[in-house]
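Protein in question passed on here:
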Amino acid sequence: MNRGLTASAAALSFELTIPGVAAAGGGDDRVVLRPGDCITCSAEPVPGWCSVAAVGRDDADRLVAITAGHCRQDGSSQVWKVGEQHRGPLGAETDVASIGSVDPIGFPTDEAPDYAVLLLDETKVRGSNTSLPNDRGERVVLESIGSLQPGGSAVGVHCAAGRTNGVSCTSGDVRVDSNLMSSALLMKPGDSGGPLARADTGEWIGLSGGYRPTGRGLAAYQRADRIVEEIDAQGGVGAGFTLVDTP
C-alpha cells in the first residue's frame, strides 16, 4: 500500500487527558484539523481563506499549525475551520510569520520564505496528519519533514492538498531553489498554504505558494525544511516543530 496516498485502517487506542475533552471510551468531539483543510478569519460562512499545510507540536508542547504567510491577516486574528465556524474559533495567528516575496507582477520569488504559525486551542481542536481523500481515494499523509538540495530533485509521485483543488498528484522531478520549489501540479486560489508531500515516503516537502512562469513547473511551493529552519531561528511559538502522527 502506498502510504503517501492512503490512510492506515488500523484502529487507534489512546487516553485523552486534555481539559474539556472526554477520555477514551467517551468520545472526542473536537474539530479535526487536517492537511489541506480550509481556514478563515471570519465566523461567517464565507467561501474560505487559505489552506493548512501541517499540524504539529512545538518544543513547549503547544499544538500549532502552519499555513502560508501571505494569507496572514494582522498576527492576532482568530481562526476558524471553514464549514465548522459554528463550533467557534480553533486558535489564532501569531507573530511568527514571513509573507514571502513577489515580483512586480505578483508572482512568487525566491528571496523570502512564505509561512505563518497558528496557535491552536487544544480543548477545541485536534490535529491530523492525513488529508481528506479525493474521489479516487488518494490522500496526503505527512509522516516526516523532508529535506531537498537546490537543483533538480527526483521525488517520484508527489501530491498536494488544498481547499479548492482537493488532493492532486503527479510524478517527475521538482526544481528546488533556496526557498521555493516548482512542480507541474495544478494549483487554484484557496489552495495557498496547503501541503506538498512525497507519496512513497510521506515526507512533507512543500507549502503551496502560487504560480510563477519560470519554465520550471508553474506551481511554486515554499520548502518545508526552510520553513522549519526559519521558525526555529525565531525561537517562539512553533520552534521545534514536529508533526502529529495521528490520522
Summary: The chain has a mean pLDDT of 86. Residues 224-234 form the longest helix (11 residues). The first strand starts at residue 31 and ends at 33. Helices lie at 224-234.
